[in-house]
Specification:
The chain is an alpha+beta fold and 402 residues long. The chain has a domain of 281 residues: Cytochrome P450 (Cytochrome p450, Orthogonal Bundle). 48% of the residues lie in helices and 12% in strands. Strand 6 and strand 7 form a beta hairpin. Helix 5 runs antiparallel to helix 6, helix 7 packs across helix 8 and helix 9 packs antiparallel against helix 10. It starts with 12 loop residues before the first strand and ends with a strand. The chain binds protoporphyrin IX containing FE. InterPro entries: Cyt_P450, Cyt_P450_CS, Cyt_P450_sf.
Length: 402
Amino acid sequence: MSTETTTAPSIPSTDIDPFAMESLRDPFAADGAVRELGPVVYIAKHDYYAVTRFTEIRKGLRNWRTFSSTDRPFYEDSEFRPRIVLFEEPPAHTRTKSAIMDVLGPKNLEWMGQYFKEQADALLDRVLDQDTVEVDGYQDLATAYVLKVFPDVIGMPTEGREALLKFGNATTNAFGPASELRDQKLASGGEAVAWVEQNINRDALTGDGLGAQLYAMADEGRISGPEARDLVKTVFAAGFESTTAGIAAMLRAFGDHPQEWLKLRQDPELVAKAWEESVRLYPPNRFGGRWVPDGADVAGHRIPAGAKVLMMWLGAARDPREFDQPDEFIIDREMPNGHLSFGFGLHTCAGNLVARLEATTLLRSMVERVAGVESAGEPRTGVNYQGFAHEYVPLRLRRGSL
Ligand code: HEM
């Protein structure tokens, strides 16, 4: 009788620190290097396990019981991130997610789409006041547009809205190691907290927006009053920086690839695909945290019970096992398995339809008015533990209707 036992291959360990400043400056290089070490890698510095490749992340996220969200790497209770939805699991998650998805879903998309289009057209007509203009795609287009349209449909006051970007930035940095950088980010976000706490209240919101709809669900008993308030806060935390970052990155991608703009002008039906490709190439959200209460098997490797896990979807966005020419921006790319930039499985982004609608509506208005897009200088990205965002996207736009 054989006494041999089969042991799982050991997980490669790395000294690469995905949260060192060098990694934050170029997360694609850092997360790509970790990805190439194996499908699951032990991050020694933080005692966490990184799941690094597209197929394994997708497979893991299908199984929310194994890869649980009730605890996450670097998680502490914080004024920036209510525990609702993202940290919940069924049955509580089913109730709160369905409430928020209802508000951010089909019943509101049609009127929102019309409003977004009016505002996108008006913004572009203002910006394109000469045959050729130079703009900052981050500030003049992405931020100007998102901070106008989405707070309006939620029913927020105009005064002080810029607080939302600071608040969102602190939310993503709350998922990072204790450091001077995190302290700075949280302090900056802290300046926005009072505004947010005041403006998530029912009486601060208009009676006909998405915020009021969430409170009306509490009147119907579908969720509780405190849950309605926490859901409104979640929308404030999750809905702005991410969408602004996604749109700014899309504009940068076109600036770097003027020929793709011409392709889009020739076939404007590619608008939706072009957005999906840009949000694949530049995911506004770098990783999702999980923990494995009973351990987990990933591609034949065993992650021990109780370990914390980073689902590294920014690195997986450029996984050559899934995408041909992964670093290229190809707007008519076929993506049979999609991408992971809105997450996957139980916690797939609740606002993904709204974010997609915002981005594609702006892009459509641009295609109708802009004959050529090119870079007008070196874009600049910010540093962020869980997010990825540009701070400056200089572009030259040449006016020309379709
Ligand atoms: C381009 C814009 C956006 C991106 C890239 C993005 C990305 C993501 C990702 C990756 C997750 C999954 C997190 C995880 O599994 O750990 C997520 C979850 C979530 N997002 Fe978004 N998001 C965007 C816009 C929005 C907007 C506009 C809203 C709300 C208005 C929103 C609300 C949420 C909520 C509530 C969750 C938690 C869902 C759950 O736990 O079931 N997001 N988002």
